[in-house]
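User: Predict the structure for this protein chain, please.
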Amino acid sequence: MEFVFIVDKLGIVFAVLFATVFTLVGIAALEYMEHEGGIKSFYGFYIPTAIVLVLACFAGNFFTYYVLFELMTFISMPMVLHSRTHESVMAALKYLFYSVAGAFLTIFGFFLFLSEGFDLSFLPGGSLGNIALSNRELFGVFLMIIGFGTKAGMFPMHGWLPTAHPVAPAPASAVLSGVITKAGVLGIIRCIYYVVGVNNIRGSWVQYAWIVLTLITIFMGSMMAYMEKGLKKRMAYSTVSQVSYILFGLSLMEPIAFVGAIMHVVFHSIVKDTLFLTAGSIIMKTGKTMVKELDGIGKSMPVTMWCFTLVSVTLIGIPPTSAFVSKWYLGVGAFSSGIPLIRWLGPCILLISALLTAGYLLTVSLKAFFGEEVKNENEKAHMAADPGKRMLIPIIILTIMAVLFGIIPKGLIDILTAISETIF
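Assistant: Here is the predicted structure, written as structure tokens:
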């Protein structure tokens, strides 16, 4: 076991995304954390988390990635308990316990393959080569998927997300949802596509079980988000659903679905960071945390709510926004997979989830722009206004990126297609 680093196209895509998002959210956090308090403490963990995540993108073997992945968990946890309330401490502990449980599952598979003398370096197509995996080895692969899937919020290890997000500061929620969940996704990609190899598990019970778990997560997360009344918790359940779009594409093990999945990594990161920053702006300016309290707020915070609306339309997948492109690729990938039930059930669940996404996001915009704002002396509603430039400019930049990637996606598609050709 030794530390190895490599620079490949997949690592560059993730590193550029992580660095860009962390920078923009970090700028926005300057204003938000002045209001929240504890700005030095926050950045004391925020910046090292970003550094470790970018380093993990260039890990060259399983051991290196695993160590950095777990280091990221321990460094990012204090951002959840930033307010030091009982609720935030309990949420941080839940985040830690789920993460450690996922780590135990992952390391079981790691030591299983290591003890049998396999090379666990990251090579396109898989460092194990074409071999017949035993049932024990397949079980080890499945546990590694569940372990990394814990950080990605995949059922049944998703419980930390809706607990951690509402209590963490909005910038922390943004990177937890938009970036740190993608570290789990990257771990699965490295495990399946760069160590085990898709040919060794395609058509096995591992693939089918993984597909079923992702579809359950997509539907369950969308339904829970639709029913949730708290704004940030609604966004958290949305993350549970949307990240499993990515995992669904990866589980199909088809080139076009792989491209769609990585595109959704990029688009979801941009959109969800914007949604959490706009939610943070609302909380900072009005103190309102429940959806029912947002009537008419779009009249006093127009730029904030227009950005919220545009990225909501993007997340739903309405053309020509970016998520439409990634979801189209995922749907085509499901049809081309040839798996009898999944080839039509998968696109149906994606469509139902998109309708639920419209239900839980656009209702917020409708209340904000067409509802009547309620003001009284006990609320901060009379203080409602768009945030300052330090917070508003990153929100606008992220919104523009979310829309433009859908209008001009070719460059990103070409890069991801080139990556997929090396592993299939």
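The chain has a mean pLDDT of 90.
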